[in-house]
Amino acid sequence: MPLDLADVLRAAPATITRTGVVTGVDGDDVTVNLDGGEVEATHLAAYTPAAQDVVLILGTPGGTWYVLGKLGTNDEPLPPAPPSAPTAGTDVFVPVESGTYRDGVRQPTTDDVRQGGDATGAVYTGAWWYATTPGATLAGLTATGGRVWIDRAPSGPAGPADVVAYLHADPEPTPGPPTEAAALHTIGALDHGQGAWLELPAAWPPLLADGTARGVALSTAGPALTAVGLSGDPQSGALEIDWTE
Known about the structure:
The chain is mainly beta. Helices cover 8% and strands 45% of the residues.
């Protein structure tokens, strides 16, 4: 019957240790080659013998041999491997600023994001700015999809209104409307007070990832729509970008 090391040491006050090679295993009995000669030994419970193992063997003055274990290994279970780095994911980017231009002039009294015209004939363009964060974070990754969070204010014409957006190239507000980096595209429709993640055109996330585009703007000569700005919705204009390595 295999023993614990403490049992072996208590039974053998004077011992020698050698190294050998296991040449045979028969139940609890182990045959070990020591410098060309073979001895019969038992083994510790912590070690499972196998032929060709190089082992440490302990001998007693009475001629009893005990195989203590295989050299160069640890019979304790190995710790789990660290988790591998993700090869795909989704990053969320919250804009640093939001605002609107009326007939090309920045409106300092609101951070809402507005598109379309009004009864006076004025035309509005609104935008969100993200500094350079999306491009810096996603550098070297492949952007595979994306969405923008837009929360329509309970104002303007009744019923659903199209959300008409374009990508812009400016990391921060400019005196005039943001520079276009990807052309106008209708990305969805929202009713009064409705907020939703609207899917971006497939070509847009890669432009945000490589720094060609820096933000999202709303602009149309069609029906007016006002999206709640950052002061009213901290998630206003948030981008979700899916990526793979």
